[in-house]
Amino acid sequence: MTTEGAAAASARVHRTVLDLNQILQKTIQSCEHRRNAEMSLTIEMAKDLPHVSIDPYQIEHVLLRLIANAEDAIRSNDGSPGQIHVKTALQGDRIQVTVTDNGCGIHAHEMAGIFDDESTQIGLNIAAEIVKDHGGDLYAWSSFGKGSIFTMELPIEAAGPRQELPAKVSGQQPLHGKRILVIDDDLHITALLYDILTMQGAEIDDANSGEEAIGKIHGKSYDLFICDQRMPDLSGEQLFRAIEPLGIQCRFLFVTGDVVNEDTMEFLRQTGVAYIRKPFKSTELVNAVEAVINRSQQQDF
Known about the structure:
37% of the residues lie in helices and 23% in strands. The protein has ten helices and twelve strands. The protein has helices spanning 3-10, 20-30, 56-75, 108-111, 124-133, 187-199, 210-219, 236-242, 262-271, 282-300, and strands spanning 16-18, 39-44, 52-54, 82-91, 94-101, 137-143, 147-155, 179-183, 203-207, 224-228, 252-256, 274-277. The strands form three sheets. It has a five-stranded mixed sheet with strand order 2-4-5-7-6. Strands 9-8-10-11-12 form a five-stranded parallel sheet, with helices on both faces. A two-stranded antiparallel sheet has the order 1-3. α7 (210-219) runs parallel beside α8 (236-242). The longest helix has 20 residues, at 56-75.
């Protein structure tokens, strides 16, 4: 298991006996805003499923990643109408959740390593390790150009009292209630940041351009801004300079792969703004986010 995967799989080990259908409904509701009129999602949930012993936040993270993967595949499919079907079923002593899409599919040569660290399918390695840590399996089938099916299997729990999904508690989630604006034109990176940070309790808005970000910054208060350095309309530095009169520069965290560029390095040195390099580990991101928020709160005080 990789360091990143181990951290994700063991970040919160509060196992609870729950109804997986309840987790699935909550997850789907949380990502409704990401789908447009050309993309539909249907749900087929088996009745009276046995319960599973899980960390609900980790399994919600896995489900979010599988749905986001399906959404990305549809967006890459030349604008054709997209369909996602999510289904739960009991198979022997395991509960299955299948996520089926009619997106672009995955090349056969990529399938063997789809859950590896080097996979082009963002975040699936972490999802697979979380499921494995729960005693389950995550596997996939795909036909290039036609679509994919991802299946998560979890072992059922012995009969016991039914429990409801616990409310998110600030003591359990370090970013509980923190409002974060993610500014990046790369939808894959935006989805990855969304998955990691909502798993820690944060409330996420996104902006896919510098101009959109400026509008949202003026319209709403945020605890943190996570910004890419390179965007098509405004660079991260130009956006940073544009909001200087607001006095909120201490709330910026740059995510960049451009630190070898002398201009970029000079900007980062001159301003002292926090940054992390791509590719980053989920633990590195969460630690950096917490550090910037704590520092900005001290300065605001």
